[in-house]
Amino acid sequence: CIAGAVGASIVAYYLRDQINTKSEFIIFVLSGAFIAHYLTQLTVFVLSRYGWEIEPSNIGSIGFLLGAFGGLIIQQIVSYIASGAWKEISFKQYIVDSIKSAFSKKGK
After folding, report:
1. 36-74 confidence digits (pLDDT tens)
2. Which of 3, 9, 43, 62 is buried most deeply by CB count within 10 Å?
3. What is the pTM of this model?
4. What is the 3-class SS of 12-77, one letter each residue?
5. Residue 82 Cα distances to 1, 40, 75, 86, 102, angstroms
6. What percent of the chain has pLDDT over 70?
7. Is-contact 66 34, C-beta < 8 A?
8. Could you tell me how far CA 14 lies from the centroid of its own chain?
9. Close Cβ partners of 79 (under 8 Å, ≥ 6 residues apart)
10. Which of 67, 78, 75 is nearest to 32 (CA)?
């Protein structure tokens, strides 16, 4: 849970132009922490079923990554709904467009 919150807070630092208020930051970090808390054991179980044996000492890194990506996905879902983009394009296309725009901003 703590590793997920740390991962989400690091990603939130890099997305500071999209996260405007303290409440958005807190929601971002908490959603990353919750996703890491509830999905870390499931992820380790699924990976072990496919032959990837995870050492117990590496579970924190899985939680970190789940927190980072979990906060990002929740933030994108909320912005997709709040912007009204769901009326015009699919969620998949919205994610692809936001990734393209993020990389085009970083390159300039």
Report:
1. 999 998 998 998 899 888 888 888 899 999 999 888 888
2. 3
3. 0.75
4. HHHCCCCCCCHHHHHHHHHHHHHHHHHHHHHHHHHHHHCCCCCCHHHHHHHHHHHHHHHHHHHHHH
5. 27, 28, 10, 9, 19
6. 94
7. no
8. 12
9. 18, 98
10. 67
